[in-house]
């Protein structure tokens, strides 16, 4: 059989989490919280399941969840998308990204991807007959080189995929980044697929600026979000897409044949849960404590790093310590030090290895402390 995705293997998240389980290691590889969600939210799901909200929801999501999400968007980003025509509830941001890419990409279209990039972008583009065009983020802080992006745009460019707060680097877009993109979009007419799954996880008072908040970008952007990330329930696979009416229409044509609709009782539970803004407004502080604890601990190890400014990931470099391939280091750390991580080379199209690995710090304090303890033994595997 001729594969449609010959270069794609099993995603690194599945590979590393299995390795962590087999080795009985602390799993700081795949990004998922190691603690429970708010019991109020869990009780709401139980309530709605028992009340019988267990059949198909409307294809675009229940009206109550779309409306409260629009209100949250107004509160946090200053604009109110039309819940009827511009907000769609989907089965996770992965689905949102896939449907958005499918909605815009035609055979031979180029789609710009800034790398290191989340691993679902490329297969979505390729499966839709598009051609990914890779632009590296600046080494060091992983900011965007807008000159490079601008010169990569040709008459074939259909869209650009962006991600802030960024996985894996934690870089959070500034107002200047947003304005630069708006200027490009205005000049060239390209579309934007904006992955904002870490919208509520930023540090040191840095705001998350949704592309939907910019009047020019709002008309051209699919904003993709994930309730799984925001409320520590990644296994629920529920997210959303906010896009202008005409693009939402195209998006829904695809969503209705990928999954049709999304898990009903959880939509009802989230609609009620979102009524209290403090439940999402408190998330930056909650994660800041973990970021601070983890970076303080890391500063006592041999790794070099700059504290993450967003997402629940921390990159660290070992370039000054060893020439070992990052995949080898990740494997040896998992099996010998019993701490699993993600090698960053997997997020590059050419698998370039800058000797950087990623840790997820969305874990209980005790687990982070134990992991840090083990990481202080790093020299054992580098010798
Ligand atoms: N984009 C990024 C950058 C991610 O880290 C993830 C991980 N969950 C996703 C999208 C997918 O989100 P979901 O689990 O809601 O599908
Ligand atoms: N987004 C998560 C990460 O970057 C993983 C999600 C998944 O396993 N698909 O680790």
From TrEMBL:
Q: Which UniProt keywords apply?
A: Aminotransferase, Pyridoxal phosphate, Transferase
Tell me if Lyase is a UniProt keyword of this record.
no
Domain Aminotransferase class I/classII large: from-to ranges:
25-375
Name the InterPro entries for this protein.
Aminotransferase_I/II_large, Kynurenine-oxoglutarate_AT, PyrdxlP-dep_Trfase, PyrdxlP-dep_Trfase_major, PyrdxlP-dep_Trfase_small
Family recorded in the similarity comment: Belongs to the class-I pyridoxal-phosphate-dependent aminotransferase family.
MF GO annotations: kynurenine-oxoglutarate transaminase activity; pyridoxal phosphate binding
Carries keyword S-adenosyl-L-methionine? no
Listed under GO cellular component are: cytoplasm
Q: What is this protein called?
A: 2-keto-4-methylthiobutyrate aminotransferase
Under CDD domains, the record lists:
AAT_like
Taxonomy, superkingdom: Bacteria
What this protein needs as a cofactor is: pyridoxal 5'-phosphate
* Originating organism: Algoriphagus aquaeductus
